[in-house]
């Protein structure tokens, strides 16, 4: 079997928000890449033996004392280097060039002129004018390189930034002041492709089919003939883990699916139908709605509700797990961004840390080892892997659903009656989003139940019933989000249907708050 990790690109992070995007681009082009902090140990870099190194961007200034520098091993290894933004500046400075500080930050579209003949920009241009070639790029700079190190030539320039790119063909060192990893840089993917394929000489080995093959082999080697337990939530990550482990170890896998009464309409049946009935995965369904709802009586504080739901989940899961004898491993759907974020939060290097909601607190006395087959994958890779494993598109590309479920979408105290009303309204909203072809244009959409009553008239009858709000957002990272500009006819259809079909609702509102300052969920 090909070793899909054998050819790899090391990305050193200087704190830019785009670093993960670089790793994703490299992997989309079929080469394994990993992100490490800029102060990675020299020996570790040598042992890592990358085929190429990308020095990523960062918020600091090379001209300031004590700002980060690339480790010496980067330049001693004799492998190609691509410096992006801060990465280019630190490379320039460390190799003997000059960087000048500026208070003026230029950020956004720019047209740059390409210079010289470099392998990086070979056959790449967006415009040709009077025999000169130009690229449309996403530029970001305050400081700029004013003097290149010896042996370097200009790669690209603009009027305000005469050295917008530089290269040393002999050493295979490249620097660009713009961001090839963002889609606004139209030819960015080709540029990254040139770097990893032509310059670093990597092949495209990192593909969903090969990743699956590789993970299956690893899981088998780790698990042997022992038993594995997985908490299946119906979300993308745990579903992909279930499908993968089922393929790798078949009956040695047992999944526990906890129906806590806070799921969407038909969710529980759909999960059982797909995994247990269709795929033949061993799934234990725990119908625990009454237990959860019982514990939630009288609890109206959002954080308290989360705690109650989380603790009850662990209790139920633990109870089901102990019924299965001799389980050695616990599988989890941890993905690469979770790994990067928790590493960054430990070293205090994260600029923004998203709280990570995976099941965190399983009791110590379970004494199980972890199996985490998605640990090195980004969400988009997990999705592609899901499709490759035969999971349906709608499951793999579904919106995220929070662990506490409808518990945080019913404001205040959660009651069974409210759950039932909300489930109906939510199902109508989802159905119409699909009908209008808007489901995949939004990143997350749902209905929120407001425990207040409002007057309405249906026929000749006055109705005094509950209020719900629709929520739909567009976002890339769920850290910031814009409310989705859904078409009026879609909103009209949904509101009419909800009020007509769900008797207990008399009014439908639409939430037009963006994040920040609002959050995506209402609680
Ligand atoms: P907020 O509301 O913080 O949501 O803007 C950002 C994303 O996180 C999800 N979310 C949760 N997921 N447990 C989860 O598993 C939680 O307690 C939780 N709270 C929010 C939310 O659905 C959105 O995708």
- Mean pLDDT across all residues, rounded? 93
Total count of domains: 3
Q: Specify the overall morphology.
A: globular
> CATH topology of the largest domain, what is it called?
Rossmann fold
Give the class-level CATH name of the largest domain. Answer: Alpha Beta
Short description:
The protein is α/β, with parallel strands linked by helices and 523 residues long. It has helices spanning 19-28, 42-48, 72-76, 86-94, 188-199, 208-223, 236-249, 267-278, 289-295, 302-323, 336-347, 379-388, 393-396, 416-435, 488-501; strands at 8-13, 32-37, 52-55, 81-84, 98-100, 106-114, 127-129, 132-141, 144-147, 153-157, 165-168, 173-176, 227-231, 253-259, 282-287, 327-331, 369-371, 444-458, 461-474, 482-483, 505-510.
Write the layout of secondary structure elements.
Blueprint: E1 8-13, H1 19-28, E2 32-37, H2 42-48, E3 52-55, H3 72-76, E4 81-84, H4 86-94, E5 98-100, E6 106-114, E7 127-129, E8 132-141, E9 144-147, E10 153-157, E11 165-168, E12 173-176, H5 188-199, H6 208-223, E13 227-231, H7 236-249, E14 253-259, H8 267-278, E15 282-287, H9 289-295, H10 302-323, E16 327-331, H11 336-347, E17 369-371, H12 379-388, H13 393-396, H14 416-435, E18 444-458, E19 461-474, E20 482-483, H15 488-501, E21 505-510
Parallel strand pairs: 1-2, 1-3, 3-4, 4-12, 13-14, 13-16, 14-15, 16-17, 19-21
Antiparallel strand pairs: 5-9, 6-8, 6-10, 7-8, 10-11, 11-12, 18-19, 19-20
Helix pairs in contact: 6-7, 6-12, 7-12, 14-15
Bound molecules: xanthosine-5'-monophosphate.
């Amino acid at each position: 079997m090909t070793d899909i990790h054998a050819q790899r690109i090391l990305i050193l992070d200087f704190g830019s928000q785009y670093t993960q995007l670089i790793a994703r681009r490299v992997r989309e082009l079929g080469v394994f890449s990993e992100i490490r902090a800029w102060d990675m140990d020299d020996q570790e870099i040598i042992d890592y033996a990358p085929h190429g190194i990308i020095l990523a961007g960062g918020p600091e200034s090379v001209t300031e004392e004590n700002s980060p520098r690339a480790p010496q091993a980067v330049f001693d290894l004799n492998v190609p280097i691509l410096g992006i933004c801060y990465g280019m500046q630190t490379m320039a400075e460390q190799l003997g060039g000059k960087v000048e500080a500026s208070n003026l930050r230029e950020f956004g579209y720019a047209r740059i002129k390409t210079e010289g003949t470099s392998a990086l920009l070979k056959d790449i241009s967006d415009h040709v004018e009077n025999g000169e070639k130009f690229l449309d790029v996403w530029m970001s700079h305050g400081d700029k390189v004013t003097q290149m190190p010896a042996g370097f030539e200009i790669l690209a320039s603009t009027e305000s930034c005469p050295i917008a790119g530089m290269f040393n063909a002999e050493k295979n060192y490249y620097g660009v002041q713009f961001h090839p990893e963002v889609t606004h840089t139209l030819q960015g993917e080709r540029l990254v492709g040139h770097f990893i394929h032509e310059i670093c000489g990597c092949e495209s080995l990192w593909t969903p089919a090969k990743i699956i093959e590789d993970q299956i082999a690893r899981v088998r080697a780790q698990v042997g003939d022992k038993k594995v337990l997985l908490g299946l939530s119906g979300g993308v990550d745990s579903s992909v883990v279930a499908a993968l482990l089922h393929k790798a170890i078949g009956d040695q896998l047992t999944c526990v699916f906890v129906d806590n009464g806070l799921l969407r309409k038909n969710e529980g049946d759909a999960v059982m139908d797909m995994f247990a009935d269709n795929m033949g995965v061993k799934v234990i369904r725990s119908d625990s709605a009454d237990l959860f709802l019982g514990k939630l009586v009288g609890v109206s504080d959002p954080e308290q509700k989360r705690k109650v739901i989380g603790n009850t989940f662990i209790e139920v899961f633990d109870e089901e797990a102990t019924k299965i004898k001799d389980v050695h491993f616990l599988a989890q759907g941890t993905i690469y961004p979770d790994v990067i974020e928790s590493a960054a939060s430990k070293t205090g290097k994260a600029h923004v840390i998203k709280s990570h909601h995976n099941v965190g607190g399983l009791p110590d006395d379970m004494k199980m080892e972890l199996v985490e087959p998605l640990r090195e994958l980004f969400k988009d890779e997990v999705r592609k892997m899901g499709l490759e494993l035969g999971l349906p598109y709608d499951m793999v590309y579904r919106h995220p659903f929070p662990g506490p479920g409808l518990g945080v979408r019913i404001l205040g105290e959660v009651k069974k009656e409210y759950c039932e009303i909300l489930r109906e309204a939510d199902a109508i909203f989802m159905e119409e989003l699909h009908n209008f072809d808007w489901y995949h244009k939004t990143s997350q959409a749902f209905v929120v139940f407001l425990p207040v009553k409002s007057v309405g008239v249906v026929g000749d009858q006055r109705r005094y019933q509950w209020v719900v709000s629709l929520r739909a957002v567009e976002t890339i990272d769920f850290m910031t989000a814009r409310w989705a500009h859904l078409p009026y006819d879609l909103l009209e259809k949904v509101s009419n249907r909800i009020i007509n079909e769900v008797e207990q609702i008399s009014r439908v509102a639409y939430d037009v708050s963006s994040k920040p300052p609002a959050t995506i969920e209402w609680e």
